[in-house]
Every structure is written in structure tokens, then in C-alpha cells.
Design goal:
Layout (H helix, E strand, L loop, with lengths): L1 E2 L6 E2 L33 H10 L2 H10 L3 H28 L12 H25 L7 H11 L3
Antiparallel strand pairs: 1-2
Helix pairs in contact: 1-2, 1-3, 1-4, 2-3, 3-4, 3-5
Length: 155
């Protein structure tokens, strides 16, 4: 049971004002969100945007479903497309050049160099996109942002 922050009187759950003294209860707890509501992550937009990139497309997918704010959805969809695309490219290259996904390369070849180059590009994008999201910027990766808008709609 909630209590008034000014006089200490007992309050009904989620009361906006105290029935005894009339004080505003701005700190009152919000109602629990139902399964059908558009639940937010409870984080600041820039932090949620940064977290969309932390584990690549996986956290992008998680935030796409739990946070409906346009800024966060933009970063979530871009994360899904950028890092999901890089993941698929790495798997295809590993299959084409016969590389082990665990790093067991037999020798140095063009395929290995390309595989490592894509890994380096992915790492640089990962750091850059997290920094830009934390700075409240909608940094668009040229091709990936357009693909994300076509697949998921404009965020």
C-alpha cells in the first residue's frame, strides 16, 4: 500500500493526489503494464539506442520488440540489418573459402584476409554506432539504413 509523501496517510495504489492533504503524488508507482501494452525499456533513449548495438543483431532484435520509441527503433532496426548482414556475409565466406568458423585457418589466403577485413569493419561500425547512439544522433549507415527502412518501415 502506498503512503502520502507529505503527510504519510494511506493512499490507494496509483493515486495522483493525497485524499487527506491534497499533495501531488508525482512519485507514485505507475500501474503494471499489461501484455498488450507498448512496453518501454525504462531506459533513457540514448542508453537504449546504445544497447541496441551491444550484442549486434541480437540486442537489436530485443529492443525492436520491447521499445517502441522512434529513436530506439531506428537504432534497433539498423543494428539488425548491419550486424545481421555482416553475420550472414561471414558465414557465406566461411563456406566459400572452406574456413572453420572457430578460426582454424590452414593458411593465409585472399579469403582469410577478406574474412578478417569484414570482421574489422564490423568492429569499427560497432564502436562508431554505439558512440553515435549515446550522443543522441541518428547516424545512418548508407546502405543498411535504407534497407532497414524498407524491411521494418520508417522508425
Amino acid at each position: 500500500m502506498a503512503h502520502c509523501t507529505k503527510c504519510g496517510a494511506a493512499l490507494a495504489d496509483n493515486a495522483g493526489f493525497c485524499g487527506s492533504c491534497g499533495a501531488s503524488q508525482a512519485g507514485a508507482s505507475s500501474p503494471a503494464q499489461g501484455a498488450g501494452s507498448t512496453a518501454q525499456s525504462g531506459l533513457a533513449e540514448n542508453v537504449a539506442g546504445l544497447l541496441c548495438y551491444v550484442l549486434g543483431w541480437i540486442t537489436g532484435l530485443i529492443f525492436f520488440f520491447i521499445d517502441k520509441r522512434p529513436f530506439v527503433r531506428f537504432h534497433a532496426t539498423q543494428s539488425i540489418v548491419v550486424f545481421g548482414g555482416l553475420h550472414i556475409i561471414n558465414i557465406v565466406l566461411a563456406g566459400i573459402f572452406g574456413m572453420s568458423l572457430m578460426g582454424g585457418f590452414g593458411g593465409l589466403s585472399a579469403g582469410v584476409l577478406l574474412y578478417w577485413l569484414i570482421g574489422l569493419v564490423g568492429f569499427v561500425l560497432w564502436i562508431l554506432l554505439m558512440i553515435k547512439a549515446y550522443q543522441n544522433e541518428r547516424f545512418r549507415v548508407p546502405v543498411a539504413a535504407d534497407i532497414a527502412e524498407k524491411i521494418f518501415g520508417k522508425a
